[in-house]
Specification:
The chain has about 1250 residues and is of the alpha/beta class. The chain contains 44 helices and 35 strands. Helix 1 runs antiparallel to helix 9 and helix 12 crosses helix 18.
């Protein structure tokens, strides 16, 4: 029975109905096609073993699955530990290869079902969240079906260019347009579709269903095309109507959150709906009446209505408050009264994502350009967010613009527009759908939502950065707090009361009511709390962060700070959901243009273009571009240039100009210094007439900054100023000049003034000036201050940098004090402070800085290596650790023209304990190499005989560096002489040789102690074997997790034979190699994964030919490989019967110079967890040993033998190898056998009788 599809009077709402059912029809038409194609995909990617869960196949940590790791627990892997499975790993790799973006959704799938279930393979190509419980294609939604076709590359062969040209992710791709249709329909704000859009939807969907490659011949797709045509022509059955209402219900659930409360109780049945259109209309009238009654009942709830009204009033008051306090920004650090609107002058910041890497946060290449990237991670809102940046980088301004954006979308006009969009017939539609679903009592899975992209209250912005204002819509309130005004206040609620509520309301009773409302809002509503300036906040209770009450669980917190504070506060990782680095503005010259545009003389566009061009030329000429990243300094430089003052890049010079400009406001008298107290005051004109005021302010700045009470160091009282000689006259001068500012603390009882310097960096510059003029204060005051507070040496970093340009000898002394505190703390930010100080000293023409630094942690570009090298030269005798990462150069310009290379000589580093080097531009100098290397950084390691070059070294880690086999040999030779343990690792290093070229990607871990060398090799090379040649090694251990694959056996054997002091050799090998034991060898332990009988015979012949006695232990699997090692696409294990090795043992027993003390066959009895088993004894329980007759079996050399390589050998032996053999032999030189002829004669007679007994017993045991 056909039904008219015009259910709603509103045409566009009716069109939305049609669009919803059109998507469902299209999904059903594609289902069989996708099921058939997924079977083909399954065949291509392969079938798993059926036993491995997905957690076993994903390394830990892997983003984004392991991002919420807490200590040693990963919520994704749980108790599962990654372990290799060649079969499943091959399937996993193929799935990745077939994914368009190489990022399958592993959370959706169950790898143990990859063996049989096609759909589990298909789920890897679905969106990352919300599909794990979907068990079939039929249960999936339209979005899932289209995502599989887009993400799986197999479907490129199933669709014609009509659907894939241009290819995804191009938005013009027809298949991308199909997905966008689904999004537009699901995420509609008013449940309306225009006639033109509806016709375009049907045309696009029909084109896909009629694709000539395969779909136009698919029966389900043909039926779907017909149904789309019927739907387009207003023909639809009542059954289709029911499906439509059901689909519309769940679409509205995702896309629209209604403001009213609707009942889901109804008295109608599905039979009434089938009775005809008249019953449906009657039901509609009943539903509308019922819902209106419910709405009236709801609105009679007085408390709720009262709360909503009070909340809306507070919202409007806060928007006005923010409009008064945060809507403008100063355009000049020199003139506080010169302001412009934030939206007119603001430029988006340069925000970089920070990620935790090996215990420390590292900056990534990910640039944050949307609020969505700041506030959300993996679809969930972050609870605690941090933005770090240096002084003047724009942290406070970024929070101000965030507040302004939130105000924009929450203004009365915006709320009215939102209310209108959610009213009318779309509201009726939601009611109708809800009640119909209640009648039918059929549950339906919730449609999965993606990014909400609805535009709301679009506004003018300087660029498309942070344009997603709707992301902020989820927050009912945004609270802005300046932490410097809440020192010693721990509770965030109390901060909000004092800084916001007290500023809005003057009456005490109204404040009390607002306090209660504020608490209720924070308990009930989603809120965002912005805390600006963590580095300017202290608390007597010793807490590192302000506290949010447990009942305010709906509130998220965003905190700004300087980097050192975040490092020293020791904030647990669990409390940092996201960390961002703010580095100033993205486009400094565009910002300078906006600043110039605020000047009256530059209102004309042609004049502005000319001014901007001249300013850019001035910046490039004076190398000032590096300072433009800071908005504050950029403003200063722009306005100074406009005023006709130029500078050379010195921070001291800039702040001297800054200070002079401020002083000019209070006193226009001009007079130059004849003999300035510091060099940067030399050409100033307004400082000398005001020098007494400057000295008093400098003294106050110093003593307040280094006071006993840290909470009063930045915000202080009238009493504090008077204590340092600032009376009313001096304070008036400071206020008039703008050096000091005053605010009033809001209080219900009384208000009192509080004071601060206009910017913390101004206070730091004046404090540094005071130190430069009174250097004894370093010992008298600063030393005690550093002793009182553990992190204080980082807190005074900017003071130190200024001091480097003002008084170099004082700066050197202070660097020594700071370094003493850093020796134990090892703050990775401290070396960058010394580097900044060095550059400031050079900018002020101080070339003999000699700053002290013990821990060198530098991750730098090639352009910065020269300055680091200069600091190194001054500190070779002080250095305890060198951690140097050189980012790879891109061009000869980046490498610099001043030097062809920089040499870091380790010969004088007698205290060096840790050496970490990373970068392809690093080369260990080899004087024998001609021509010399073109690498930028040369590491010089000259051993001064008889002492080693670096006698205190404990750790060496080389990553991607270049080192010759000769230099590596010398390094190992030195390490072997040390009396303490040294760990030396090579990761992807290039080892060169003057004879045989070079090898790349060498990876090995080595431990050295007292002529003992343990090597764990993951990627070996012939040059590595060259480095071992003739070393003074007494004990050598060679292995890896799965055994060493020696590719250059001849070279290895030659190096082995050259080790004239070697007594013990232990090796874990994948396959047999020919070895030449040195004459000094006494003990030989070899563990082979697989060993042929012929290879065993050859090995025995080699050992028998030795001229010394060798005690040998052999362990090997009875098998051979049928594939090239590491080739997972073609492999196999062929078993070898253990009896094939028995004749060899029998031959050995007949030899006079060979004693077989052990011959044991072990059979595998079960599998074990290779990740959980590490005990040799426990591993041995997975094997059963056969009796070996009367051959001696020395128990102390059994499976409990303490040998790490033996443990790894048994642990990682291939699961398909079911037999292994354990042997222990004592081989003496043949020439000495005559001395024991009598004993051997007796032995030979006994063996003739015993051998027959042994053979019979072994055959009997094997048969059993």
């Amino acid at each position: 029975m056909a039904a008219n599809t015009h259910l709603i009077d509103d045409k566009e709402t009716n069109n939305w109905f049609k669009a919803v059912i059109g998507l469902k029809v299209t999904k059903e038409g594609l289902t069989n096609f996708l099921c058939a194609e997924l079977q083909k995909v399954h065949t291509v990617v392969g079938r798993s073993c059926g036993n491995c869960p997905i957690e076993n196949l994903i390394q830990c940590p892997t983003n984004p699955y392991c991002n919420n790791r807490k200590r040693n627990y990963c919520p994704f892997h749980k108790s599962q530990k990654p372990q290799p499975c060649p079969i499943c790993d091959n399937v996993k790799d193929n799935i990745i290869l077939h994914h368009r973006y190489g990022k399958p959704s592993w959370r959706n799938t169950r790898a143990e079902k990859w063996a049989q279930n096609d759909w589990e393979i298909g789920k890897c190509y679905l969106p990352p969240d919300g599909y794990s419980s979907i068990s079939s294609m039929q249960e999936s939604d339209f979005n899932g079906v289209i995502n599989i076709m887009l993400n799986c590359l197999h479907f490129q062969t199933c669709l014609s260019p009509l659907c894939l040209s241009p290819p995804p992710p191009d938005k013009q791709c027809p298949l991308e347009k199909v997905r966008q249709i689904g999004r537009d329909v699901r995420h509609t704000s008013d449940c309306k579709v225009t006639d033109a859009d509806l016709q375009d939807y049907f045309k696009t969907l029909s084109t896909l269903l009629a694709d000539p490659q395969y779909l136009q011949h698919d029966p389900s797709a043909i039926i779907a095309c017909t149904r789309l045509s019927d739907l387009q022509n207003a023909r639809m059955s009542f059954e289709e109507l029911g499906k439509l209402l059901k689909e519309a219900n769940h679409t509205l659930e995702d896309a629209k959150k209604a403001g009213e409360c609707f009942s889901e109780k109804a008295e109608r049945t599905l039979e009434e709906l089938e009775a005809g259109l008249h019953q449906l209309k009657a039901a509609k009238e009943d539903i509308v009446a019922q819902v209106k009654k419910e709405v009236r009942d709801f609105k009679t709830n007085g408390d709720e209505v009262n709360y909503s009204k009070r909340k809306e009033i507070l919202l409007d008051m806060m928007i006005k408050h923010y409009d008064n306090t945060l809507s403008t920004i100063t355009t000049s650090p020199l003139h506080d009264g010169v302001h412009a609107r934030v939206d007119d002058i603001y430029m988006p910041p340069k925000l970089q994502l920070m990620e935790k890497v090996k215990g420390a946060f590292k900056k990534t290449d990910t640039t944050i350009t949307k609020y969505n990237n700041v506030l959300l991670k993996d679809g969930e809102y972050n609870r605690k967010m941090f933005i770090q940046g240096e002084a003047g980088s724009g942290k406070s301004t970024f929070l101000a613009i965030l507040v302004r954006d939130w105000c924009c979308i929450n203004s009365k006009a915006s709320r009215k527009q939102t209310d209108e969009a959610g009213s009318g017939k779309s509201t009726f539609l939601a009611i109708l759908v809800r009640n119909w679903c209640c009648i039918t009592s059929q549950a339906y899975g919730k449609q999965k939502d993606e990014t909400y992209t609805a535009d709301a209250n679009a506004r003018l912005r300087p660029s498309d950065v942070f344009e997603d204002l709707t992301t902020l819509k989820v927050y009912t309130f945004v609270f802005h707090v300046t932490l410097r005004d809440s020192v010693n206040e721990l509770n965030i609620l109390e901060m909000l009361k004092k800084q916001i509520i007290d500023s809005i309301y003057g009456d005490k009773d109204r404040r009390e009511n607002a306090y209660r409302l504020l608490n209720e809002i924070m308990e009930r509503e989603r809120c965002l709390v912005l805390l600006d300036g963590l580095d300017e906040w202290t608390c007597n209770e010793g807490r590192s962060l302000p506290v949010l009450a447990a009942s305010h669980s709906q509130c998220d917190v965003l905190i700004t700070t300087r980097p050192w504070k975040l490092t020293e506060a020791m904030i647990p990782d669990a409390k940092i959901d996201i960390l961002l680095q703010l580095e100033g503005v993205n486009k400094p010259f565009e910002f300078s243009r906006r600043l110039l545009g605020c000047i009256d003389d530059c209102k004309d566009s042609m004049v502005l273009d000319k001014k901007q061009s001249e300013f850019e030329s001035y910046i490039m000429k004076n190398d000032l571009k590096k300072l433009l990243i800071s908005p504050m300094l950029l403003q200063l430089i722009v306005l100074s240039w406009v005023a006709g003052t130029e500078m050379n890049g010195s921070m001291c010079e800039i702040y001297s100009l800054f200070l002079e400009s401020l002083l000019k406001k209070a006193n226009k008298e001009q007079r130059k210094f004849q003999s300035p107290p510091v060099q940067c005051f030399k050409d100033t004109e307004h400082i000398r007439p005001n020098i007494k005021n400057v000295d008093r302010l400098a003294k106050a700045a110093f003593h307040l900054l280094f006071s006993n009470a840290r909470e009063s160091s930045l915000v202080f009282s009238d009493t504090d100023l008077e204590r340092f000689g600032l009376d009313e006259e001096h304070k008036e001068f400071a206020f008039k000049s703008g050096i000091l500012s005053a605010t009033r603390k809001a209080s219900a009882l009384r208000s009192s003034p509080s004071y601060s310097f206009s910017h913390k960096s101004i206070q730091e510059f004046l404090a540094a000036y005071y130190i430069a003029c009174n250097t004894h204060q370093i010992d008298d005051i600063i030393s005690g201050y550093l002793n009182r507070y553990k992190d204080a040496y980082m807190d005074i970093s900017q003071v130190f940098i200024f001091l480097c340009g003002l008084q170099i000898s004082a700066a050197k002394k202070l660097s020594g004090m700071m370094n003493e505190r850093d020796v134990d703390s090892r703050n990775r930010e401290f070396p960058s402070i010394i580097l900044s100080g060095f550059r400031e000293a050079v900018a002020n023409k101080h070339y003999d800085s000699n700053f002290i630094l013990s821990h060198f942690y530098f991750n730098i570009a090639v352009t910065e290596i020269g300055d680091v090298h200069n600091i190194w030269i001054q500190n070779t005798s002080n250095i305890l650790s060198l951690d140097l990462t050189i980012r790879e150069s891109q061009s000869s310009y980046e490498r610099g023209e001043s030097a062809s290379h920089y040499e870091f000589d380790l010969s004088s580093c007698s205290k060096l304990k840790s050496l970490r080097l990373l970068g392809k531009d690093i080369w260990f100098k080899d004087s024998s190499c001609l021509p010399m290397s073109k690498h930028l950084v040369w590491i010089v390691l000259n051993s001064a005989d008889p002492l080693p070059a670096i006698p205190c070294i404990e750790l060496i880690r080389l990553v991607e560096v270049t080192i010759s086999s000769r230099v590596l040999h010398g390094l190992l030779s030195s390490l072997l002489t040390l009396d303490h343990k040294v760990t030396c690792s090579l990761e992807y290093c290039s080892i060169t040789s003057g004879v045989r070229g070079s090898d790349t990607d060498t990876t090995a871990d080595m431990k050295v102690l007292n002529n003992t060398l343990e090597m764990v090799i993951e990627q070996n090379s012939p040059r590595l074997w060259e480095a071992l040649h003739s070393l003074n090694i007494k004990s050598l251990s060679l292995g890896s997790c799965l055994g060493v694959q020696v590719e250059h056996g001849e070279l290895f054997s030659q190096s082995l034979s050259s080790l004239t002091q070697l007594e013990t050799l232990t090796m874990q090998l994948v396959k047999y190699i020919v070895i030449q034991p040195p004459p000094s060898l006494k003990y030989l332990n070899i563990y082979f994964d697989k060993l042929l009988p012929s290879q065993l015979r050859e090995l025995m012949a080699t050992l028998r030919a030795c001229t010394q006695t060798i005690d040998s232990r052999l362990e090997f699997g009875c098998a051979m490989s049928t594939y090239a090692y590491y080739n997972r696409n073609d492999y196999g294990i062929q078993q070898i019967a253990p009896e094939e090795y028995i004749p060899i043992v029998q031959e050995l027993e007949t030899l006079e110079n060979v004693a077989v003390n052990r011959f044991r066959i072990l059979d595998r009895t079960g599998a074990y967890d290779t990740w959980g088993v590490n005990d040799t004894g426990l591993l041995a329980t997975c094997w059963s040993a056969r009796s070996n007759g009367n051959i001696d079996d020395d128990k102390q050399n059994g499976d409990n033998f303490e040998d790490k390589l033996y443990t790894e050998f048994v642990k990682w032996l291939h699961d398909e190898i079911i037999h292994r053999i354990s042997m222990r032999l004592l081989i003496t030189p043949a020439s000495t056998s005559g001395n024991i002829s009598k004993r051997n004669s007796f032995k030979k007679s006994a063996q003739i009788l015993m051998r027959r007994r042994i053979v019979r017993r072994l055959i009997w045991v094997y048969a059993v």
